[in-house]
Amino acid sequence: MRKPWMVGVLAGVLLLGACGDPSSGPESAAPVPSAPKASSTTHQRPAATPEAESETSAAAGTGTAAPSQRARPTVLYLGDSLAMENQKVLGGLMRDELRARYTSAPYSGTTLCDYLEGTAEDSLVPPKDKAAALVRTLRPDFVVLQFWGNAWGYTPCMDGITYDKARDKYLARYTADARRLTDQIAGAAGGGRPKVVWVLQGPDPITPDRVRRVNAIYERQAAASGDLLADAGRAVSAASARYTWSQYLPCTAYEREHTPYCTQPGSGRTALHRDDDYLHFCMAPTTSTPKPCPVRSPGVLRITRAITRAVASQLD
Fold it and tell me: How far is 303 from 200, CA to CA, in rounded Å?
């Protein structure tokens, strides 16, 4: 790392609390060479009032057939700043590889409770973009949920509960909210319940056990409700150390073949994080204006490919 490690860690904490996201640049995410491109029909939302983005045909999904029987699955993607930076690349992969109807409505700095109906006044997500509201409108086959586990009390709906001051209470709250969110999604769908895809997160260098325990919550909830896991965090972890944070990892075969994604070809490794941001995977600078990642970023591609594979596994 070119700068002291702790400088990057402290900067990452500030960026998360400030809801920082990829800075301005091209409106569409950078294309993947010789691979699916992020669709230009995925609209960028304003920082303060994100709009759910969708093809006009997305609402045509009935949600009545099993996902494996659908010629074109309908996919809804919700989450925090990691989902914000991933959304266009994931949309491109979903459309190009799975022919999916795709909608994303991420909000930076959020937790699970922000997407619960009944938290409108103490939430960063407006009523129209709550998970249940979007499920009723879109009738998706899959609802992908990506939440790193905001641990600093940034969002009001957590009632000031933070991991560092009240770990058991924090974990109990996440467990309860995961159950409530699953129930609200199922209730909103009626008889055509979508599959919930819980995205497992990558390592946290400050409190590595926190992410392990948050992922365990998602694993238990998926098992209890018959839903899915997408272990995107493994794709950005060392092969022999799932919960050990790394700024650089060996380039994959795909990254070696597509040189923009192997950032240090001489040493055979690629950068997953910037020197000044240990949390996000976008290689563009972060600002307070939430936007999809505007540049080719190995970590973003690794994560979105893992999510796409999880959905695709249900369509075979």
Answer: 10
Average pLDDT, the chain: 82
Looking at residue 115, the DSSP 8-state letter turns out to be: G
- Per the CB < 8 A criterion, the answer to whether 78 and 114 are in contact is no
CA distances from 286 to 10, 25, 283, 291 (A): 14, 11, 9, 9
The Cα 208–Cα 218 span in angstroms is: 16
- Going by pLDDT thresholds of 50, 70 and 90, the confidence category of residue 173 is very high
Sequence-ordered alpha helix ranges (H) in the chain:
5-17, 81-98, 131-138, 167-189, 208-225, 232-235, 253-257, 298-312
CB contact at 8 A, 243 and 211 = yes
Residue 307 — very low, low, confident or very high, per pLDDT cuts 50/70/90? very high
Asked whether 127 and 120 are in contact (CB, 8 A), the reply is yes
pLDDT of residue 7: 39
Q: Which residues 6+ apart lie within 8 Å of 215 measured at CB?
A: 200, 201, 233
